[in-house]
Design brief:
The protein has about 325 residues and is an alpha/beta fold. It has twelve helices and twelve strands. The longest helix has 16 residues. The chain binds zinc ion. The site of zinc ion has 8 residues, from loops.
Length: about 325
């Protein structure tokens, strides 16, 4: 699920009857009273609450199974993102999540939420034996046809009994979509070979931009039913039997500058018209800054170009970056013991 999301036309009704919230991580029962983030019309028709037990942020009331199925219908994916934007993002995700594990042997990778297969294709070109899974049959068929990925349609639990063990399992923009994250991580754990590692990429609710932007934060949408912070992703992984958890954070290269931030744009929209134009012009002068700005200036257009750019950015690994205030969490964990 690593492509941008659309606000599709699926209308989802709220559950009228539920009054108690049972935490999907720690199981604590609570009556939700004070939302951390309030509902925002059709874009996000649910309040977000913090669990009093473990701190996990979750939507309430929750979607029913039928509503979730409708939410991930044919309208889910946006296919109009440019190819070079997809490759640039794939390079960034590869460098952050997979490059540190290239020394593994054998290199068996499961990419859960592989979408159109750009990260999977890049990994395959760099020597990984790759299997992909995605909820969208449409996306899976494109990953197979375009890049020759062994990709399967559906949810992980539908395939868990027929998949071989893997050395690395990548969950890119996946876990925040799932109604039962702990059970899902247990399935992931069962698929890891001895010494295997899970790599998780998910929005960071502790992000500085979330605190500044509040309800305008970029990662708030109806699909993100649970939102994690460094402490809660650790807790969730521990409950699923993982150990050796390392948490880091980074920002999607597209959103490194002020001009690109929807939180900033929402503030600018309040200014008088003439001033808006001046502020935009001022901000546009700072577009070339940021750790990954080279990826915005010269985007890869093909798989071969993307492969070459991985080498250019190889030193941009997150090792030794202590800040946990950026938009995305980059988490690794291993099987305990
Ligand atoms: Zn909880």
């Amino acid at each position: 699920m690593s492509v941008a999301l659309t606000t599709n036309r699926v209308e989802v009704e709220r559950h009228a009857g539920d009054s108690m919230m049972e935490c999907v991580n720690c199981g604590a029962q609570q009556s939700p009273r004070h939302p951390v983030i309030r509902a925002n019309g059709a874009a996000r028709p649910f309040d977000l609450y913090r669990c009093g037990g473990c701190g996990l942020i979750q939507q309430f009331p929750r979607y029913s199974a039928g509503e979730l199925a409708a939410l991930y219908g044919a309208a889910y994916y946006v296919f109009d993102e440019s190819e070079e934007d997809r490759w640039a993002r794939a390079v960034q995700q590869y460098v952050i999540h997979l490059l540190p594990h290239e020394t593994k042997s054998p290199k068996r990778l499961l990419d859960v939420g592989c979408a159109l297969g750009h990260v999977a294709a890049l990994a395959q070109r760099r020597g990984w034996r790759v299997t992909g899974i995605d909820i969208s049959a449409n996306a899976v068929s494109r990953a197979t046809v375009d890049f020759g990925i062994d990709a399967r349609a559906g949810a992980l639990h539908q395939h868990v009994n027929t998949l071989p063990p893997f050395d690395v399992i990548l969950l890119g923009d996946v876990i925040e979509h799932l109604p039962q994250p702990v059970a899902f991580l247990q399935s992931v754990r069962s698929l890891l070979a001895p010494g295997g590692v899970v790599c998780i990429d998910t929005p960071n609710f502790a992000s500085r931009w979330r605190k500044i932007g509040r309800s305008n934060w970029i990662a708030l949408n109806r699909y993100h039913i649970n939102l994690f912070e460094p402490e809660t992703i650790r807790d969730c992984l521990a409950r699923a039997g993982f150990g050796n958890v390392a948490v880091r954070s980074y920002t999607n290269h597209r959103y490194e500058t002020w001009a690109s931030r929807p939180e900033v744009q929402a503030l600018i929209a309040w200014l008088p018209g003439g001033l808006q134009w001046r502020v935009q012009k001022l901000l546009s002068r700072y577009n070339g800054f940021g750790r990954w700005s080279g990826l915005r200036r010269v985007k890869p257009h093909t798989l071969d170009e993307a492969r070459a750019r991985v080498t250019d950015f190889a030193h941009y690994r997150l090792d030794g970056i202590p800040k946990l205030t950026r938009d995305n969490l980059a988490v690794t964990a291993r099987v305990h013991g």
